[in-house]
Amino acid sequence: MSTRWDSIRFTVNGQPRTVHAPPMKRLLDVLREDLHLTGTKEGCGEGECGSCSVRMNGELVNSCLVPVLQAEGAQIQTVEGLAPDLDSGGALHPLQEAFLHCGGAQCGICTPGMLMAAAQLIERHPHPSQAEIREGLAGNLCRCTGFARIFASVVAAATHAAPEQEPDAR
Amino acid sequence: MRGDPEAHELIAPGNLAAVLQLLAAEPGAWTPIAGGTELMVAHAAGRLTARKLVSLWEIPDLRFIRVDEGTIAIGAGVPFIDLRRNAAIAAQLPLLARAASWLGSIANQSRATLGGNLVNGSPAADSSPALLAYDAQVELISARGRRTLPYEKFHTGYKRTALAPDELLLAVHLPRRFARHRQYLRKVGTRRAMAIAKVALAGTALVEENVVRELRLGAASVAPYPTRLYRTEEAILGNSITEETIRTARRALLAEIAPIDDIRSVAEYRRRVAANLVEEFLRELMHSAAPVDAPLMNAALAAWNSADESTALTQMLACCGARRWASAMVAMRPVQDQEALLAVADRIWAAMEEPDWREAFACHPRIGERKAAHASAPPSAQKSAQWSRQEQSGAAQAEARVLEELARGNAQYEERFGFTYIVCATGKSAEEMLDLLNRRLGSDRATELREAAEQQRQITEIRLRKWMAA
Ligand SMILES: Cc1cc2nc3c(=O)[nH]c(=O)nc-3n(C[C@H](O)[C@H](O)[C@H](O)COP(=O)(O)OP(=O)(O)OC[C@H]3O[C@@H](n4cnc5c(N)ncnc54)[C@H](O)[C@@H]3O)c2cc1C
Ligand code: FES
Ligand code: FES
To answer: Is the CB of A133 under 6 A from ligand 3?
Structure first.
């Protein structure tokens, strides 16, 4: 069946991948079904909840709204890519540590998307203000935590993850 | 019912010419898909009727922002995230930058394109009111050629546009002549992010001696498509802004719009809110009655407007050391007057991010430390150092004890936050600056970073004023 479709190539979490899928298949389904990366979740399937958030070429996107053909050649990062060496005893990402310690995850359905949105936020704003955190996570819904602990997790991660070193420019 | 991906064809030729050929060969057979934030939602719900789709995503000829002499051109394939990050747009088309930041969420803005927003033709489209207020033109393209029309003529009915079946929206052109206009934008929805507008209004106005000389009002969700409010504009134009004008404008608006009841709101609410928004804009205009005579152009400003690029850049860098800010300022030339320059400086600064802030902070000597710029330093640094000495003259008279404490505080501050303590020093004694330092040492980093950015904004403003007065 797979040979019915042209191959589509992209990079996922640093690894080159090739899939054979209908070009209109959602990136979300390709990640979960073809590549067995089931960390990325489906909530609404229509761009409203953010649980399918992944990063594509350095930007946050909802993978439920990306036809896989438009990911051709792209660099994709999923939640699995936050802690790539976990299976060989490596560490969690500072955001994951923070969610763990601050109670940022309960049922966990929203968590992969929250983590990706938070990772995007911290990359753009290493020291986010409350308003930036609100905005950065505004597209991600959580029905369990009431959000406060998720915000606290992001604050904690930002405080620990971004040591400052400024070369004296004067 | 969920859509079946196998029921749709999708191809990505990757360049504009190939897409146009395809549309020309079978007009109406192919549906363009850009960021897919409309079409993929329809697909998810099994409502996508298009069988053959052609991708516009990442086609370079559609993804550009070009600042020309008289206009800013924005490619139809530009996603909203690019619009809100662009310094020229932030400075010159602030309403559009703001509208971009309100559309959906970050994940949405990364994919949602300006072209998709306009062609989709929702009456509530977020970019539309701003484009109407800025008198935008749209450029359409097909294998047959190009044509340009005013954006206000683009929508021809509910979700209908002037596009022929073989045409694409190529670009939106925005005139760069609104720097002196008063500008207004408000979107009313259920929440700030992820909410479609119940009503939105954008306006640009030129007011002279309290008389409205030029006015454009663009509205969303008050008609079957985004629309200019011509009758309301007429009722206001040429009048001074009085309570009577406001009443007349409200009446004209209510006679002009025809909002509907739908899942987001009801017509009556929309009517009242729309009238309130027009009134709010008029009251803002009333309170900001513009200066009477247009002042002669400031000499320093006039020279800067016509200086070569590197000279112009050096002068800006002396006022604020962030290179992205300074380049955006230079790209803004010509700037009309002092007020416009200060307004533009603020707007560009507001679009800057942490690395830019820190670059600017790093150009200041530590408070209380007297260090001249090295003789080999660039001219912008020499000028900046000279200004720093004037600004910190309060510290020059300080007792040794205060200077020591300042030095200790500075070190502590840098250790804690990773950047130099900056404060708008003009008019402050060393003791005051020390008190502020001690208070700010108690802030968290994010708050302090913002405080420092605000201090830099004030310093920049003072320096720009001095520069123009010189
Ligand atoms: C969760 C969510 C929240 C949203 N929030 C908002 C909001 O707050 N405000 C708002 O205004 N919108 C909102 N939208 C709607 C949508 O994101 C925008 O309208 C977006 O700009 C559409 O752009 P696109 O590139 O994704 O369009 P697509 O889905 O790719 O295309 C939309 C239409 O435009 C056509 N098209 C696209 N580009 C061209 C072109 N260059 N020439 C000719 N035709 C073209 C397509 O054929 C299609 O008919 C939201 C959508 C979602 C899913
Ligand atoms: S599943 Fe993609 S946004 Fe909800
Ligand atoms: S933890 Fe359950 S939805 Fe967020």
So the answer is: no
